[in-house]
Structure formats: C-alpha cells, structure tokens
Amino acid sequence: MAHDHHDHENAQHAHDHTHMDFAEMIPMLEQEAELFSPLYTEAAGWLRDQRSETGLIVDAGSGPGVISCLLADTFPAARVVAVDEVEPLLERARARADRLGVGDRFSTLRAELGGGLGDLEYPADLLWASRSLHHVGDQRAALAGFARALAPGGTLALMEGGLPMRYFPREIGIGRPGLQSRVDAVHDEWFGRMRDELPGAVRETEDWAALMTAVGLRHTATRTFLVDHPAPVSDETRAFVVTSLTHRRDFLAPGLDADDLATLNRLLDPDDKASVYHRPDVFLLTAHTVHVAVKPE
Q1: Does residue 52 have a pLDDT over 60?
Q2: Burial (CB count within 10 angstroms: exposed 0-12, middle 13-18, buried 19+), residue 62
C-alpha cells in the first residue's frame, strides 16, 4: 500500500469507485514517489537527526519501495523491511533495492497492516507509515499494532494529512473558476465512503498525536513538508500532473457536474491548446505532514 496518496492519488477499478487495485497503480505510485523524493528525503533527514542509531526500519505500507530504498540510503547501517499486503508491489520493492545496491540489507514481508505487521525478526527502531494507515478500517487498532512492533525507545513516523495538490491557478480561462476546489469536495465525499466501507471501519477524529498517545506512545513532534514545482514545470512534472488529473477525472466522474467534467476533458486533451499538455501556468504544489511518537523505554 502506498498512498494517497496519499489526498492519496490512487487508481481504481472502473467498475468500483471506492476500492482500489494497488497492483494496477504501480506506475503511478512510482511516478509520484520519485517526483516527491525531495520531500521524503527531507523528512528522512529530519528523522535521522532525531535518532541516528537505527538497527531495523520498517516501512508499513511500502508500496513499490521507493521510500523504503530512500530510508535505506538515509540510514546506511540499518536493515529495512518493506511491509505490504500486495505481492506485486513487494516484487517491485525487491527489484528496486537490488538495482540501487541496498538489497543485501533489504527484505520484504507480506502482511495486512490492520492485522499487525506479521513476523518481524525483531522489534523496529523506526517504523515509517506513509499515507497507508487511512486504508485500514480500525486505525487505532493498527496504531496499537505499530506500537507493539516498536522496540523500547523506538520511533513511529506517521505521514497523514497535509494539503491537497494544486496544479494551476483558480482562473484557468476555461470553465468556471475554482475547479480544483470542487473536485476536492467530490474527492472528500469519495474518501469518506471509502473509509466507511473498509472492513472493520471505525470512525476516528483525525487527531494523530492524540491517537498515538492513546496507544501508549509519546508524541514528540509534527512537521509539514512541501512539494513545490513552480511553473514552468519539467516534462516529468507535467507528465505526473496529466496522470494524476486523468485518474481524478476517471474515478470521480460520477460525482462531478457536467460542466466540470467537460473542463477536465479539455484539460486532458493533448490537441487542445488550453490543456495541461500545453499550458505554461501548470505547477505542482502540495504538502504532507509527519507526526512522530516514541515508545517509552
């Protein structure tokens, strides 16, 4: 799992607008994680400054392993275990680790986050969960499982929350101004349905520091990290905006009004001069928040 995601920009089955096929999302997950790598590098460096001695790092909901490998690079003495419930994602993670030369201290574990983290060889010194917890029905129970997986004095770094992505100005010259805010509102409705339909779903106030405290951890810090690719963007950034916006149009289409859907179609038409493919004002701006807690010794 990765996602969505965080605002989790994740692909879905065309016939199912609440449940995701993460294996089908591999190209998009890798594209996003690689583009956002400066954010993850900064966050990992911040964590390293807080605890340089780290024997075992667990990436809970690792997806295709982009961040897992980045953590291995940031903590060169640590062993990294990528945990996910989707085997094709773990296969990609293993291949990436081998390709980047960290495979000798990298392993994978297939497990559902809601059922604990499976059979870790020994407790984790650092457990990283990047926008994966909100895909678990009972988030408090999953956090309790994370806490059990930590060694005394171990650190949990939970990336949840932040700000939705923005790709272009409020007024783009076609359609009604404020398109992205309306798309966000439809996304929020979908996200609520997705959460409600998860197995064992429990509604929680998304006060992550309080939830960490409730499972016996001591909240120590919260920090938000920015992704800022101003216009004019690189070809890689523009390609990601196309991918992300296409995904949003496709899976949110049932909830969008006809005018906004028509505007999105124009924005994604490579032959339209007003589209993302040609606009000089395209940018990428978002923020992700990391909450850190420590297990008492």
Answers
A1: yes
A2: buried
